[in-house]
Amino acid sequence: MSFFFRTQPLKAVYMICFVLSVLGRIPLWAITAAIPALRPRNAWSYHRTLIFHAINAFMSTFFQVGFMYSTGEDPEAVAASSTASEVGFVWVEPLEETEVVGEVAEAAEVNNVKAVKTAGYWYPPSMEPNGQHPAADEQVILHIHGGGHVMGSAHPHGGPAGPVCSGLLEHCAQIKRVFSCGYRLASSAPYPSKNPFPAGLLDVISGYKYLIKLGFKPQNIIICGDSAGGNLAMALTLYATLNKLPSLPIPGGLVLISASVEWEITHNGPESSWKTNACSDFSNLFFTKGYTARSLLGNLAPATIATSPWISPASLKLDHSVVEKLFVGFPMTYIIAGGAETARDALITLRDHLQEGVGRDKVIYNEVKDATHDIVTMDWYEPERSEIFKDIALWINKVYS
């Protein structure tokens, strides 16, 4: 049973046992890491293998005691704090009722989801617009953080967004500021059921509209998301492309980093990356436990998790007659996958879908050899992490050349 040890004193007992078990496993990890054939990936270094084992073990605690890794900042608390300006905090107004349309509006009605104000953070904080319009041709990145839709934060400190946004600014010289958009996190039993689909999607669409209202030209806005944030970035772009609302034009580009593009595993054959990379990816429990899927569904039919392009745009259960028309009109897209992650095959399927819709020349697929899931959030995963950001910078130059 998931989250059995979420309350005290069971939580404390579990964590003590967990620490002791890790101490007991360290000698075994040290021995096996010294033998390349026994590493999750032969090409990994001794140091990288040890860190991966530690992360993998730590991730397993999430589904026992709860999500300890930045389960989301309270925007009201941040807004009221003395450090709000120091972290680039801003409020983002909700969408108008007339801007929630189509299948997303139908899902919102089923799940009783409303558009509400959300929050975001400017990187660096000194570049928060503060009422000033951007330069005429200024390019900006709207970043959407990962966390399986159930944890994480756009806040600069303590969450997955900080390393990604700082990496983008460090290596993309043409980008002077990044806006990290927060969104409502989903939950389900044994926790209170909150924020099912499309709550998070409505929030990041609001973040995109916020940038447009500031004066950024849509063609100069690049949507970027990693992991579950890549899922939302994909859905945001799909929303703008399909609905063609005057207030929500199509963005200039889309960057998907280890995007989670199916929440029911359909790429699961014996030779699939889901099987062959199972030992080199730490994110597997988010799929096998089904917690994210249940949390997103809310009152929607269970089949929706694998048949909705808004939730699982790379699912093999999508109707091909729908898929071949779905991505027509998408902007230039850059997809980054890790060669060692379980979602690699799904990301290849997504690449193929997009290329069918917009042409091969508008979709770039970069598979980073032996990389595990979402390495851009890991400052220690070098030099591959920096190389990804440099490649993104080159791609941005190509988009705007």
TrEMBL record:
Which terms are listed as keywords in the entry? Hydrolase, Membrane, Transmembrane, Transmembrane helix
| Stated name of the protein | Alpha/beta-hydrolase
Upper classification of the source organism reads: Eukaryota, Fungi, Dikarya, Basidiomycota, Agaricomycotina
Residues that span the membrane, as ranges: 12-38
> What Pfam families is this protein classified in?
Abhydrolase_3 (PF07859)
Domain (Alpha/beta hydrolase fold-3) spans 141-375
Q: SUPFAM superfamilies from the xrefs?
A: alpha/beta-Hydrolases
Source species of the chain: Lentinula lateritia
